Amino acid sequence: MSLSKPLSIALVALISPLMGLIMSLPLHAQDNLPGYVFSVQVSSPQQLDVVLTRAEDLRELFNPDEHSKIAIVLHGEELQLFQKMNYGSNTTLVDRARLLDQLSIIDIKACQTMMQTLSIEQSELPGFIEQVPYAPTEIERLKQEEGFTRL
Predict the structure, then answer these.
(1) I want to staple 135 with a disulfide (CB 3.0 to 4.6 A). Which of 34, 107, 111, 145 is the partner?
(2) Is residue 143 within 8 Å of 34, Cβ to Cβ?
(3) Which residues are registered as beta bridge partners of 107?
(4) How far apart are CA 63 and CA 49, in angstroms?
């Protein structure tokens, strides 16, 4: 079945603007949705485990069509829990954090300023942890530029 030339032109004229609109949408709708940010400074694996549990619980409460990831910004001694040399004693915690990151439930960020203070090299943290120059600046950026809510 072939369409008449005027009908074909009319369909192209109708569909072209729609295709432009579709192509301009982000690949992942969640990329433009506001999220939540936790500022984290804890000193034990148990305390960090509570933070991860709270993030999971919070994620179950909100509509993923209205909110994106939960950013967890680490800027205290908890950074040492993720050091590769400490993986053996923190395997369960690190693997849980990695899984939550892979499932797009959380996005963990590490403060490079605190890493320097704690003598942690960039290569000592797992690759799923995004490193940011300064935690307070990153938290403010998430709030101002991406509409995140600080918890």
Answers:
(1) 111
(2) no
(3) 71
(4) 23
Range ranked top by mean pLDDT from 6-15, 33-42, 47-56, 121-130: 121-130
Answer for the pair 138, 114: CB distance below 8 angstroms, yes or no: no
Kindly report whether the global pTM for this prediction surpasses the value 0.85.
no
Structure tokens at 79: 């950074």
| Separation between Cα atoms, residue 26 and residue 32, nearest integer Å | 8
The CA R_g of the chain, rounded to the nearest whole Å, is: 21
Q: Of 30, 37, 55, 36, which is closest to residue 135 (Cα–Cα)? A: 37
Domains and CATH numbers, the chain: 33-150 (3.40.1260.10)
User: Which structure tokens are listed for 90?
Assistant: 């923190």
Q: With contact defined as beta carbons under 8 Å apart, do 96 and 106 qualify?
A: no
Helix (H, G, I), strand (E, B) or coil at 107: strand
CA 13 to CA 36: how far, in whole Å?
42
pLDDT at 4: 52
With residue 45 as reference, give the H or E element that holds it.
helix 45-61
Q: pLDDT tens, 23-40?
A: 333 334 445 677 889 999
